[in-house]
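Need the bound structure for heme C, inputs here:
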Amino acid sequence: MSDFVSDFWNLYVIVIVVGSILACVVLLIVQGKATFTPGKTMGHVWDGDLEEYNNPMPKWWTWMFVITVVFAFVYLALYPGLGNFKGMLGWTSVGQHKAEVEKADAAAKPLFDKYLAMDLKAVAGDKQAMEMGKRLYLTYCMQCHGADARGAKGFPNLADNDWQWGGEPEQVVATIAAGRMGVMPPHPQLGAETIKDLANFVRSLSGLPGDSVRAAKGKEAFVAAGCLGCHGPEGKGNIAMGAPNLTDKVWLYGSSEATIIETITNGRQNKMPAWKEFLGDGKVHVLSAYVLSLSQGAK
Ligand code: HEC
Ligand code: HEC
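Answer from helper R.:
Posting the output first, comments after.
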């Protein structure tokens, strides 16, 4: 594909590049033909005693110039530089980058293959694998889950033992490989009063203070509005749908009454991207082990 939309810029670049080099050649020839009178001054005087000699250019300097001109033409013939001309070697920065990435991947492949053959608990106990996992995590995951993996509003904490999508090894691998999409549907049709009742009920599930009359009404609404279909009859969540446990102290979006009202009214959804295609099975495996290692010993 051409970088330029019209041919004008192609020619424009060629004319400037070739013109500049030819100007250097002309300068060389003119200087080569000039007559010099070594030892004599040009007759210009500055500040009373600064005078200019009429000497030829040093030989080394002239040769540097010649070499530069020859180099420029050879370079422009081999590499891209002259407008749209791709150069005889067909070199591109993208191609070089690809080749380097392929080389690095090929060098690391035996190592990842070795880890792929081990089960996740064993990989999680391997010091070198965990160092690689940490580097991968800091490159690909930190932006959303935080440098310490403790998450942020809407982005789950990976360093605890609370799992929206399940914490068994296969479940964590599936989350990272294929991605996840959590959808909490909006419920504005329930009306502000019922939503407030629901919020009080949801807070009561995890022992947070609230209006007990509203919480009792909210308990009925939780069934009537179908919340239990996803969050379970006791509000303990359902990893098949990524519906969070509402009875614990872990909050994806926040536990204040106002935040819960906002969650129920407008709904929430968030997406964990899929990594299998981009990173390959080996890296996904090591990352899964790393994520599991973070929650070991956590409550
Ligand atoms: C663009 C932001 C983003 C990036 C980058 C990202 N994630 Fe996620 N991740 C999310 C979101 C959002 C969720 C929760 C999805 C939901 O709401 O259902 C999630 C969920 C998860 C979960 C499930 C947690 C649980 O409690 O079940 C794991 C594990 C995870 N991510 C690991 C990773 C790893 C490892 C990486 C790096 C390869 C990564 N994530 C990169 C946004 C991201
Ligand atoms: C279709 C399934 C589904 C239904 C029905 C549903 N939810 Fe949810 N809910 C979810 C999912 C999935 C999430 C997590 C959203 C995300 O990952 O971004 C969620 C999140 C929440 C949260 C946020 C929890 C936190 O940690 O911040 C609250 C509160 C909540 N739901 C309450 C309710 C209530 C009350 C109802 C009934 C009116 C309800 N949900 C109905 C699936 C559902």
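Comments: The mean pLDDT is 92. Residues 140-141, 143-145, 154-156, 158, 163-165, 172, 175-176, 180, 182, 242, 270-273, 275, 287, 291 surround heme C (ligand 1) (CB under 6 Å).
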